[in-house]
Amino acid sequence: METAYARFRDERTGHVADYIPALAKADPDAFGICAAGTGGESFAVGDADVPFSIQSVSKPFVFALVCEALGAAEAAERLGVDATGMPFNSVMALELDADRATNPLVNSGAIATTSLVPGATVEERWDRLRAGLSRFAGRALAMDDDVYASEAATNLRNVGIAHLLRGYSRLFSDPDEAVDVYTRQCSLLVTARDLAIMGATLAGGGVQPVTGEQVISPDTCRRVLAVMATAGLYERSGSWLYDVGLPGKSGVSGGIVTVSPGKGAVAVWSPPLDAAGNSVRGQLATRFLSERLGLNLF
Ligand code: DON
């Protein structure tokens, strides 16, 4: 891990996301790596304990909560589980599918996933979602209010997608409420160490390695990891699997979590992104570690 950190620290390609204005303030030099095992041990280098908003890395964990609530078959039926091969915020992906389904790891499917979190009111759904993600992390996660307000003021595309989904009966709550809960979810603050431990929970059949809590079932873990393998890095998911050989999930704040089933997870945080919205140093460091540690599943 130290070799990976030293090797990629000076990488200068990529750009910090700025379509959410608050994310443009991120430090392009920030770089942290953490690996966590299913036995609860973790190893970190660099900025592994610096908080950042989770963004899309929340998506597989919210999907896991929805699979637990509805069952994996119904969740797949309502949301779809096939890769779109298109950018994360694509409207065309939704329009091109005959059933208007995408998958839980792109914005349209993720907003639909959030709309399925059980609860009688928006606050009940939010409490359940935040509590669920906190159980994965093993600590109470808090929102970055600045990132939330910034995204809520500029996310008209997500609002549009939610209304479109509702029109196709592919959204399961009020569209504006669904986008609001989704935007709060994306603003939850985590560290690379949190993401590694959350990923290690998926690696260990749903058992949180530090608290020992069974957060989700082994069957849900398998379903979530399958969707991460096919769609976790959006239109780059195929080349990711080709090089790294592991399920992963990226987010626009620069986090990537990668799961080694049965063993643990690696999380990297570094804000500069490639054109698809995936952390440049995150991809390089994870690929290096997958090779060096012999983690490729194939
Ligand atoms: O909805 C959005 O656009 C953001 N809250 C999350 C997108 C994201 O992280 C995509 N990642 N690469």
TrEMBL record:
It catalyses: L-glutamine + H2O = L-glutamate + NH4(+). This is Glutaminase. It comes from Usitatibacter palustris. Homotetramer. One of its GO terms (biological process) is L-glutamine catabolic process. Pfam families: Glutaminase. Belongs to the glutaminase family. The gene is glsA1. Substrate binds at S56, N107, E151, N158, Y182, Y234, V252. Keywords: Acetylation, Hydrolase. InterPro entries: Beta-lactam/transpept-like (IPR012338), Glutaminase (IPR015868). Its EC number is 3.5.1.2. One of its GO terms (molecular function) is glutaminase activity.
